[in-house]
């Protein structure tokens, strides 16, 4: 993943200090398999192949320039027997606006 200084949305605070506007590798998520990035006014979200989202930039109360995984605090769907299904929510697409982020999520059961 690469970015240019003025379009970083807080991806790497060290890059913002630079006056050189050339693409540079973002080191914060070098170990992750990033498949999509969306940039908002003051933040960015990186989506991994396994459906996790990492938030960067100025998002209160987090520290700017430090990635944090976005928790998906949605209740699991109910299975046919009335109990909660086993699995987890996975993001499929992400989009950032000026001060908000939206994601399309899908339930991935432990059985698949």
TrEMBL record:
The RCC repeat ranges on this chain: 1-50
Gene3D superfamilies with a match to the protein in the record: Regulator of chromosome condensation 1/beta-lactamase-inhibitor protein II (2.130.10.30)
Alphabetical list of SUPFAM superfamilies matching this protein: RCC1/BLIP-II (SSF50985)
Domain of life where this protein originates: Eukaryota
InterPro entries: RCC1/BLIP-II, Reg_chr_condens, Ub_ligase/GEF_domain
Pfam families assigned to the protein according to its UniProt record, in alphabetical order: RCC1
Keywords on record: Repeat
PANTHER family: ANKYRIN REPEAT-CONTAINING PROTEIN, REGULATOR OF CHROMOSOME CONDENSATION
Protein name: Regulator of chromosome condensation 1/beta-lactamase-inhibitor protein II
Organism: Rhododendron williamsianum
